[in-house]
Structure to design on (725 residues):
């Protein structure tokens, strides 16, 4: 099962290597990882999606907790949270298919951000389901490049979720 | 307020941490550091012959004292030569601060002369690592490094110091406290589970205490003895926990696992409660996981929450310092008698003792260990190498006190014993220190004989020479159809001459009746003394649980 982990870390060089290295050497699979600093420039927030059974997730969280720079870690999988991912898709588009593609873009409330001679770049944000759906819809036209940011997530409500729940 | 350069800040920080001995090897990138040490009287620097020797010596020093070991090395090859020793300390949770030189800041990342990314290289084998980028951070980093290395679950920390930072100057203020928001360890986080644990202990009919290195790290051996006696449960101690419970105690079962005693393994398998104290359920102990204590409730006490249920699912986890937790448990549990259970254990002990056949012709390695134990009354500091020599030492040296059995457990580092013995002897100059070695392992760091001699260390080195990489040969014999592929070591050296070449004393012993007199001579000698025992070439370590097997299914478990 996929778990979403929200990790607050000290914003120092090398933090990301430590986290990514921990996953690699212990054989845990990172599904996606997104990082950026928070309202406090000293602190960064990492959203990690990891696939594994309960025992794997338990070890992942415990091992992450041990890292000196990790300030707070919560598995928000079971919580109410808002999650978003941003995707850029460069899709084949000749004059015959362009209109059809633009319809799809409208349906998904995505945006065309660049027009080339025989291609379009489309920007879309949304949860993983929507991102996958738009990818699937555009695939028949021929996807040239797809860039995804990985998921970022925030728990609903006023209070920040801490590790204890 | 004093203005100091980076190198002087390091030295002043070491003094502030109470460091008395450091081990190291100079080089270009640490010239300032070594200059700062010149004429320094409060800190003794031990020059080894190889950086690996320095880091193992610092490790041995830390294990024997409970203090933090400190090692210096230069950049590039100096730093990379520390890698094995850092990994060794990491696996066995030994507090260690390694200070490495680095090329000047402006040269970093350009493949400069003697440059290596040591913080990157050591990342998976350190508790934490620093690359110092500003001399103003240095005192804080030193303070944090020692704090991280010695608290919670101890471990190695690397401080990588670029040459220009070591020369740069700033005001020296040693921070009185550390501020690490993400660094947390739980000293005593039990309460809720304590009641459950107490109930389990009070109800158990066939309890076994499984104690490890955490007992020694936490200084909990007295609590352990009191606890075991109060609940009248047998105690098995791991390789890392050897000495945490006296091997001569009537409740002592010796070591569990692959080369553990048959009675320890049978007791674990038949138990209804395993009380794991400062252990990590290592695969060398548990063997096949689903056959480990199949009918037992598992209590697991550890300061590192990530160890709980990593290998064996803990029914009752207690996260915290094992000394604190044991003290709480001790107060709450009822005194117990387990006569029927102890009788059963005693029967296993009688029927399946540790055993070997000594004859008059050839020296058995176990006999040498027994004689060392006898002559030192189980009170010496024993540093072992890795392999058969190590397992025989663990099986036949009856250790009475903690911190006196110094052995590379998790990493299994050949070449650890001699330099570790140097660290131990420096920590305890008036104590007897034996290095029990094999002919293979001793050759991995035999250059350190020179260090032992230079500092007049009266280390006794007992080489059990079977002309084989014995443990590998044993596996080849048992599991590879006796195809002894590259494990036979002919061609020397002549260890007596080698010892003498370094200015130590050496002697060779080939007959069983000469073992004891040789040990007596070594004990009486004032300096480094090497005894080469020519032992039975094909003697094996038994019992043995084949890797991945159930621990109650041993080869050679009984009387052979």
């Amino acid at each position: 099962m996929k778990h979403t982990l929200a990790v607050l870390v000290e914003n120092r060089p090398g933090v990301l290597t430590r986290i990514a290295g921990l996953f690699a050497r212990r054989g845990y699979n990172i599904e996606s990882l997104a990082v950026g600093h928070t309202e406090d420039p000293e602190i960064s927030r990492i959203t990690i999606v990891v696939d594994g059974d309960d025992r794997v997730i338990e070890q992942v969280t415990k091992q992450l907790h041990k890292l000196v720079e990790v300030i707070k870690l919560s598995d928000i999988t079971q919580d109410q949270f808002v999650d978003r991912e941003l995707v850029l898709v460069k899709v084949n588009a000749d004059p015959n298919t362009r209109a059809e593609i633009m319809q799809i873009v409208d349906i998904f409330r995505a945006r065309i951000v660049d027009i080339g001679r025989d291609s379009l770049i489309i920007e879309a944000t949304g949860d993983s389901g929507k991102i996958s759906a738009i990818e699937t819809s555009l695939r028949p036209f021929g996807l040239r490049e797809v860039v995804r940011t990985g998921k970022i997530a925030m728990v609903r409500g006023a209070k920040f979720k801490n590790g204890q729940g | 307020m004093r203005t100091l350069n980076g190198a002087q800040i390091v030295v002043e920080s070491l003094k502030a941490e109470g460091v008395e001995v450091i081990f190291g090897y100079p080089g270009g990138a640490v010239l300032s550091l070594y200059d700062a040490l010149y004429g320094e009287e409060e800190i003794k620097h031990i020059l080894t012959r190889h950086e690996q020797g320095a880091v193992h010596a610092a490790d041995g020093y830390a294990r024997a004292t409970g203090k933090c070991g400190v090692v210096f090395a230069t950049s590039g090859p100096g730093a990379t030569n520390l890698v094995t020793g850092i990994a060794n300390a990491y696996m066995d949770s030994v507090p260690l601060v390694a200070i490495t030189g680095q090329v000047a800041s402006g040269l970093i990342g350009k493949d400069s002369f003697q440059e290596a990314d040591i913080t990157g290289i050591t990342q998976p084998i350190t508790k934490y690592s620093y690359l110092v980028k500003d001399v103003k951070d240095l005192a804080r980093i030193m303070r944090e490094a020692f704090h991280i290395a010695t608290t919670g679950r101890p471990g190695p920390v690397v401080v990588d110091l670029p040459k220009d930072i070591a020369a740069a100057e700033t005001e020296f203020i040693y921070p009185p406290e550390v501020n690490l928001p993400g660094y947390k360890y739980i000293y005593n986080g039990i309460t809720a589970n304590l009641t459950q644990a107490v109930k389990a202990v009070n109800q158990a009919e066939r309890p076994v205490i499984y104690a490890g290195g955490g007992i020694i790290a936490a200084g909990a051996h007295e609590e352990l003895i009191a606890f075991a006696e109060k609940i009248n449960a047998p105690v098995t101690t791991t390789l890392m926990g050897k000495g945490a419970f006296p091997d001569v105690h009537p409740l002592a079962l010796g070591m569990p696992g692959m080369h553990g005693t048959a009675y320890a393994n049978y007791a674990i398998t038949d138990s209804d409660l395993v009380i794991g104290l400062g252990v990590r359920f290592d695969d060398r102990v548990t063997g096949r996981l689903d056959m480990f204590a199949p009918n037992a409730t598992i209590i697991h006490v550890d300061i590192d929450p990530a160890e709980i249920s990593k290998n064996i699912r803990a029914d009752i986890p207690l996260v915290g310092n094992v000394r604190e937790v044991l003290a709480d448990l001790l107060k709450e549990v009822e005194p117990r008698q387990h006569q029927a259970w102890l009788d059963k254990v005693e029967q296993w002990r009688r029927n399946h003792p540790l055993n070997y056949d000594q004859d008059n012709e050839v020296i058995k390695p176990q006999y040498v260990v027994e004689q060392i134990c006898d002559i030192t009354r189980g009170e010496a500091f024993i540093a072992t190498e890795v392999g058969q020599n190590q397992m025989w030492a663990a099986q036949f040296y009856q250790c009475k006190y903690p911190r006196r059995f110094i052995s590379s457990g998790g990493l299994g580092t050949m070449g650890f014993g001699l330099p570790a013995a140097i660290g131990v002897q420096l920590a305890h100059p008036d104590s007897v220190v034996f290095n029990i070695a094999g002919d293979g392992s001793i050759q991995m760091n035999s250059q350190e004989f020179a260090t032992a001699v230079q500092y007049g260390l009266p280390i006794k080195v007992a080489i059990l020479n079977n002309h084989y990489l014995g443990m590998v040969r044993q596996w080849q014999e048992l599991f590879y159809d006796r195809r002894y592929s590259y494990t036979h070591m002919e061609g020397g050296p002549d260890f007596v001459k080698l010892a003498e070449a370094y200015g130590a004393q050496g002697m060779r012993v080939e007959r069983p009746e000469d073992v004891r007199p040789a040990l007596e001579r070594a004990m009486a000698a004032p300096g480094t003394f090497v005894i080469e025992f020519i032992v039975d070439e094909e003697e094996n370590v038994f019992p043995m649980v084949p890797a991945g097997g159930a621990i109650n299914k041993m080869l050679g478990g009984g009387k052979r």
